[in-house]
Amino acid sequence: MSNASGPPASMLPQVLIVGAGPTGLTAANLLGAYGVRVLLIERNPGTSDAAKAISIDDESLRTLQIAGLDGPLSEIIVPGTGTKYFGADGRPLVHARGPGDLRHGHPFKNPFAQPDLERLLRTALGRYPHVQTRFSTSLTGLSQDADGVRAILTPAAGSDEQVIVAYLLGCDGGRSTVRELLGVPMDGRSFPEDVWLVVDTLGDPHDERYGMHLGDPARPTVIVPGRDGRCRYEFRLRPGECAAGAPPGFDLVQRLLSPHREVDSDQVERAVVYTFHALLAERLREGRCFLLGDAAHMMPPFAGQGLNSGLRDAVNLCWKIAHALDGRAGEALLDTYECERRPHARASIELSVRLGRIVMTTDVRRARLRDLLVRAAMRTKSGRRYLTEMRYRPSARVSSGAVIRFDGRAHLLVGTPLPQPRVLHGPHTKMTRLDDVLGPGWSLLGVGVTDADWRRADRAALPEGIRVEVVLGDRVPRPGSGRTAVADYDGRLDALFGELAGSFVLVRPDRLVAAVFAPAEAERVSDRLGRFVVPVPAPTSGGAADTPFTDYLPALDRKGIRP
Asked: What is the rounded distance in angstroms from the CA atom of residue 425 to the CA atom of residue 475?
């Protein structure tokens, strides 16, 4: 496809993102950081004022750190301590805090207000002159071929416009226009019998930094205190109290809130009645179009993974899109979005459904059995760890896709997010987080390897990116030429890499470990990875290695970007 007239190709968008919710805005920020020209459209006149999602986890905060946004985020979240579950008798069952080791460099589960997050993400796009936004604009048609996507955009006031892009990202929610135009069905089920009242309140007395699930079968309830006196309440309704989609009366809201607080009508920020869905799109990719967030999957809220799953979609896909646009990748890498994200999305949906059945049951006998089993498990060491560390959550390991295994075997780190410990780094040996050293692209970490090993890795033409020497033990990080170095700060770096001395660890832009290998295996890794990413020789001289991560953000150098 070609544009017969209009702006020069260097000014035209390469990617169209439909939907300016958290997923679409995050994708726009990530692509903007990668130097991709983006057009983001939203049918509504602005970002949402509805506090739909209320919990953001450590993985999502890390994604926003990659986009350079975790600093401003500290002003809108409450660093949380997980979820406390209560039994049918009102007594605590378990406080699920997560692993407790700041594995991703951020608190595990954090209350926030979605409107605050969307405003922050929208404002952050102002850093990128190559990212355009158009609100009050709908997608009304699309077609595609091997060369690109033609999209028809219809503004609220004005005439239709056709844009031609290389890729389209559908981030437009559960009633996705993109998904409908592509003809992609959703598989799963809805729960019309489970009707819930959700109330967001102001001036609330709760000051807990954790969510509360009250497992009283007579009235299952969720309470999530937020920032600045905000608090989310969710009540399972009984038949006849209010229908899904109907406006709840203030008398119902006041009655259900009365055991927890007094409330005036002007302290109710939002009150809606709805049911849940457990659905997964039959395909996440259709040609040059991709589905992300609620457009791709919907789940009950009990595992707190709806928004977080959408941000996982964005961080997984956006670097692959950037690679495809600058000629470093093709169809094989883009295809991995499906096989890398679908299993975890499905597992998250299934976990959300199971938790709802167990934690929010209205069956008295099931609730009593639940409480008995949980209290028994909490008396054992393995049971306590399983429940308090939330080891029932689905594994984030990628078993197929752009990860390298030899003969079906690999180190346990391969296919998992690289932990983010605090490290010592730079000429003044300052403490920082590992991701702030790694920067936005590929990273090759050498754990106690020699200069000869580095030369061997460089000859293997692994993906271009930063080269990091991991210095074990109580030593000062002093990098060799063309490399940077990190050393242990608090014992976590040594614990992570201690058994890998003499090895390389190859990390993708989304912080997933692509390979762990000995220097002698560098060529083999390069050959395997060449199926997904065009090998580019690593830099042989210094310069970018010690450039602060934030210096990359205004305009990353992406050579040869095509419209």
From this structure: 11
Find where tokens 């896909």 sit.
317
Whether 88 contacts 215, CB under 8 Å: yes
DSSP, res 210? S
Cα torsion 401, 403, 408, 414: sign = negative
Length of the chain in residues, anyone?
563
pLDDT in tens, 494-503: 999 999 999 9
Residue 121 to residue 510: CA distance in whole angstroms: 19
Lookup: tokens for 311: 């941000």
Report d(CA 73, CA 378) in Å as an integer: 35
> In this structure, are strands 38-42 and 15-18 parallel, antiparallel, or unpaired?
parallel
- The Cα 4–Cα 462 span in angstroms is 39
pLDDT tens per residue, range 460-496: 989 989 999 999 988 888 887 889 999 999 999 999 9
Query: What does the longest C-alpha to C-alpha distance in the chain come to?
Result: 75
Contact 1, 145 (CB under 8 A): yes
Of the candidates 438, 403, 443, 404, the one whose C-alpha atom is nearest the C-alpha of residue 421 is 438
Neighbour count for residue 516 (Cβ, 10 Å):
21
Q: What percent of the chain clears pLDDT 90, i.e. is strictly above it? A: 79
Q: Tokens 């008295």 map to which residue?
A: 364
Assess whether pLDDT exceeds 80 at residue 547.
no
Measure the CA–CA gap between 560 and 9, rounded to whole angstroms: 12
3 state DSSP class of 96: strand
Q: What predicted TM-score, i.e. pTM, was given to this entire model?
A: 0.91
Q: Which two tokens stand for residue 479?
A: 């990098």
Encode pLDDT of 177-195 as tens digits.
Answer: 999 999 999 999 998 888 9
**C-alpha angle with apex 125: 120 to 130, nearest 5 degrees?**
175
Distances (CA, A) of 446 to 14, 81, 421, 467: 35, 34, 16, 8
Mean pLDDT over the full length of the chain: 90
Please enumerate in sequence order all residues whose Cβ is within 8 A of that of 373, keeping only pairs 6 or more positions apart, or say none.
none
Q: How many CA atoms lie within 13 A of 422 on its CB side?
A: 10
Kindly tell me if the per-residue pLDDT of 532 is higher than 90. Answer: yes
3-state secondary structure of 153: strand
Asked whether 50 and 119 are in contact (CB, 8 A), the reply is no
Label the pairing between strands 38-42 and 92-96. Answer: unpaired
